[in-house]
């Protein structure tokens, strides 16, 4: 029997590779001097992977509802490996852009598949916590690993024309390791197998099951889109943000990025625990409000703050810590609230909208960075965070594990309209009655978790 830790690594290795490969474009444009890329080509290199990711999410999410999560995860690893290898050996700017699109297709499928598989594999109602742990492994590990690898090679004197290829080369190794691990260890969850049997009995199609879920779909897709505008818009450009107006070598900016990724890990560690105490909806609201307030300070006082390096760095870490909370919840909520038989589709649509936001944020934030309008970037983050908070209030349900179980059973019985009503009815007790507080007796059992 495969140890749960090994299974968790096999599920999350794709997200770790994704975050690593996304972070690579933060540095590659600086080191790939042999390409002589135009500003437009640099922008496309950054955004190409997002375009591929959108396609991957739209295709791989629904496909996994048909072929299974295991087959889908293995297919994602194969596509990612091909893209990573092509990126490593790219012989021109346009080839690198094409390689990033291929990588994006594989990476895009990771989000709905890994999160859905992780949530469905939970033996209790701790789906959100499981997804948070997955996010910790992928986002925390991958985002810290890329600047660390880059910094070590830079200070070791690796020539720039080889350094950027080795950045992608490490990504290829991670992809290959993930493919082998998934082939040997992963399997479809019992919940997924049961949902496929129910689907065959009731002969429900995807559209009829998802149509009543228009409101939560608006909430998960919209909030993920707005979050990724912030997440990727900032993280594709923060090396330049730290470097702006500085006389220090570029390696110092890379080190600053690594430290920001490292110091935000405590908030990612806290997220799984927080999701067992507070609902995902509330955690998401806290994250967006905190992000908006921190960036308001950064936007209004960017000039003076940039001169006080320690204070600027601290504020940036605080805002990244708040930012990590909706990073967890946008993925967790999308992986939980849809019926198991169409969960890959619902999560895939939401994730695709997220990557649409990532494309928008990466492109326009880069344009603002090129014009040295750094304070304007922070103003954009404030506006986006406020809008995301409002959308969360309106369109994301407030639920617990019993609510999810009751809604999923109704959907399996061919009653998706009633399932949505239950989903928005609030937290439930074991017997289906409404809970008095968040739980009727303040966390009735140790197994219960706030979804």
From TrEMBL:
Feature: compositional bias, Acidic residues: 441-451
Residue ranges of the TM segments: 47-64, 71-91, 132-151, 163-184, 258-276, 283-302, 308-333, 345-365, 377-399
Domain Major facilitator superfamily (MFS) profile: 1-400
Subcellular location: Membrane
Primary site of residence: membrane
Pfam families: MFS_1 (PF07690)
Swiss-Prot/TrEMBL keywords: Membrane, Transmembrane, Transmembrane helix
PANTHER family noted in UniProt: CARBOXYLIC ACID TRANSPORTER PROTEIN HOMOLOG
Protein's name according to its UniProt entry: Glycerophosphoinositol permease 1 (Glycerophosphodiester transporter GIT1)
Species per Swiss-Prot/TrEMBL record: Durusdinium trenchii
Source taxonomy: Eukaryota, Sar, Alveolata, Dinophyceae, Suessiales
């Amino acid at each position: 029997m495969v140890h749960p830790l090994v299974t968790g690594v096999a599920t999350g290795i794709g997200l770790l590779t994704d975050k690593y490969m996304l972070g690579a474009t933060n540095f590659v444009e600086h080191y790939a001097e042999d390409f002589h890329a135009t500003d437009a080509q640099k922008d496309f290199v950054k955004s190409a992977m997002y375009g591929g990711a959108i396609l991957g999410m739209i295709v791989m999410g629904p496909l996994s509802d048909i072929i299974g999560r295991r087959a889908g995860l293995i297919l994602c690893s194969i596509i990612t490996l091909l893209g990573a290898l092509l990126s490593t050996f790219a012989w021109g700017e346009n080839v690198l852009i094409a390689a990033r699109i291929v990588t994006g297709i594989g990476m895009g499928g990771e989000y709905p598949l890994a999160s859905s598989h992780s949530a469905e594999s939970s033996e209790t109602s701790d789906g959100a916590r499981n997804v948070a742990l997955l996010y910790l492994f992928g986002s925390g590990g991958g985002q810290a690993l890329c600047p660390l690898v880059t910094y070590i090679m830079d200070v070791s004197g690796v020539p720039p024309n080889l350094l950027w290829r080795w950045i992608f080369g490490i990504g290829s190794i991670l992809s290959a390791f993930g493919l082998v691990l998934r082939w040997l260890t992963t399997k479809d969850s019992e919940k997924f197998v049961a949902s496929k049997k129910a689907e065959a009995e009731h002969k429900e199609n995807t559209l009829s099951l998802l149509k009543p879920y228009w409101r939560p779909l608006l909430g998960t897709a919209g909030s993920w889109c707005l979050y990724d505008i912030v997440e990727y818009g900032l993280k594709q450009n923060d090396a330049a943000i730290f470097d702006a107006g500085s006389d220090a070598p570029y390696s110092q900016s890379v080190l600053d990025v690594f430290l920001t990724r490292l110091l935000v890990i405590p908030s990612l560690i806290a997220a799984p625990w927080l999701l067992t105490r507070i609902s995902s909806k509330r955690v998401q609201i806290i994250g967006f409000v905190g992000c908006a307030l921190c960036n308001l300070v950064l936007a209004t006082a960017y000039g003076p703050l940039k001169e006080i390096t320690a204070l600027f760095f601290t504020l940036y870490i605080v805002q990244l810590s708040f930012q990590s909370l909706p990073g967890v919840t946008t993925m967790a909520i999308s992986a939980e609230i849809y019926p198991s038989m169409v969960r890959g589709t619902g999560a895939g649509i939401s994730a695709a909208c997220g990557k649409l936001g990532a494309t928008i944020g990466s492109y326009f934030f880069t344009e603002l960075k090129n014009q040295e309008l750094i304070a304007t970037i922070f103003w954009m983050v404030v506006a986006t965070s406020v809008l995301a908070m409002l959308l969360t209030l309106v369109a994301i349900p407030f639920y617990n594990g019993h609510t999810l179980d009751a809604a999923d059973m109704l959907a399996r019985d061919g009653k998706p309209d009633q399932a949505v009503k239950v989903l928005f009815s609030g937290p439930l007790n074991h017997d289906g009655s409404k809970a008095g507080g968040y739980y009727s007796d303040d966390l009735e059992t140790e197994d219960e978790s706030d979804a």
